[in-house]
Q: What sequence folds into this?
């Protein structure tokens, strides 16, 4: 594999750590700036909404430019945003830094996938893209706990300084190791927008929103649940997040395998399991052994939906690869923001730190209902020759996107 892929993977690692590294540090941030837990949680939802905007707007706006230069510009945004966050004297400035960093998220993965594929022979493109997204997976497994541990030892600002350094290294790596990629000669964005007239495309995006809203809504406030409900010390939170991260690593692989076999069936099964795990977690959050088991299970099933959700959207928008990819990344992050916001409302209403788990369970149950309805309508509306396609014979490789 070309060494330039490592630079793209490092960028994926940094972006993944930026998105969720703040979760374990929310108690510190809330105390430092004198804001409530629910307001601190907006640092997650605000980031997610900005990713949604950048995933669509920047992907479309930059589609006509040299892709290497686009990646360099996006990494410049990443560095600037994390630098602002590290220096933030007040909560609004920290939120501003989060928003700036988030704008590069979706476009980096969208453009980076194309660049990674162009760097290798046609029969190795899937492996190249997987390597780039591997940085995001490593961030979930090791980066987020490590960032939380660093913040616990040296203060939450140190995590953002580390992210700034990662951004500088990635920028240098792309500049030196990634070959120039000419801009595409023609991009028919108007034609691609036509794919969004199809109800099943919107159904797929709605399922993506609800699936991620349920999981991330619960995960956003997990540090408070672990310390205030279960009784773990603050120092143990990073190590507990390792357990969750290990689950996501296994779940992403499992989700891809299941989606290849039976897409809609696997998604329905996973949404059912997520609902059950969140309810179990809520009922047993006072038990340390059960909390450990629930964290691992939530990691496994929580993000296992990502490959299948990506695949379902791509199936119904096969003729709109640029916008469909950006829209699905946007849907994931709208879900992140929605889940964090709804869970924050439950906390603000005084329902306690178990309430985000119940909110998440209700949201994923809603997602299951939308999936079931959409699948039945898709079978009724599709011609006989194509009814089998999304449920049994996926036409695109299943890959996780940020």
A:
């Amino acid at each position: 594999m070309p060494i330039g892929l490592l630079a793209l993977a490092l960028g994926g690692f940094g972006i993944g750590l930026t998105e969720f590294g703040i979760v374990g540090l929310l108690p510190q941030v809330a105390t430092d700036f004198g804001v409530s837990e629910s307001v601190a949680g907006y640092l997650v939802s605000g980031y997610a909404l900005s990713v949604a905007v950048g995933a669509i707007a920047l992907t479309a706006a930059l589609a006509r430019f040299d892709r290497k230069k686009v990646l360099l510009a996006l990494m410049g945004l990443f560095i600037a945003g994390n630098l602002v966050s590290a220096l933030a004297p007040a909560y609004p400035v920290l939120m501003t830094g989060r928003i700036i960093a988030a704008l590069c998220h979706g476009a980096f993965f969208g453009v980076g996938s194309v660049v990674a594929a162009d760097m290798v022979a046609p029969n190795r493109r899937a492996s190249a893209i997987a390597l780039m997204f591997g940085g995001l997976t490593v961030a979930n497994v090791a980066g987020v706990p490590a960032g939380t541990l660093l913040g616990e030892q040296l203060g939450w600002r140190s995590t953002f300084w580390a992210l700034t350094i990662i951004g500088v290294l990635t920028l240098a790596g792309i500049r030196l190791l990634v070959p120039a990629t000419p801009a595409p000669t023609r991009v028919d964005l108007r034609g691609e927008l036509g794919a969004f007239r199809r109800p099943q495309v919107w159904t797929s995006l709605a399922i993506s929103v609800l699936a991620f809203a349920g999981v991330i809504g619960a995960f956003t406030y997990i540090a408070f649940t672990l310390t205030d409900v279960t009784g773990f010390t603050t120092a143990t939170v990073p190590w507990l997040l390792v357990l969750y991260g290990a689950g996501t690593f296994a779940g992403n692989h499992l989700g891809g395998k299941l989606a290849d076999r039976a897409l809609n069936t696997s998604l329905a099964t996973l949404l059912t399991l997520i609902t059950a795990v969140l309810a179990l977690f809520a009922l047993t959050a006072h038990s340390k052994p059960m909390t450990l088991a629930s964290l691992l299970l939530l990691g496994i099933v929580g993000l296992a939906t990502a490959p299948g959700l990506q695949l379902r959207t791509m199936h119904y928008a096969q003729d709109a690869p640029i916008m469909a990819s950006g829209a699905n990344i946007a849907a994931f992050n709208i879900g992140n923001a929605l889940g964090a916001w709804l869970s924050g409302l439950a906390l603000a209403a005084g329902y306690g730190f178990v309430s985000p788990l119940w909110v998440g369970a209700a949201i994923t149950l809603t997602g299951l209902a939308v999936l079931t309805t959409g699948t039945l309508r898709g079978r009724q509306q599709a011609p006989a020759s194509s009814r089998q396609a999304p449920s049994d014979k996926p036409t695109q490789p299943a890959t996780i996107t940020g």
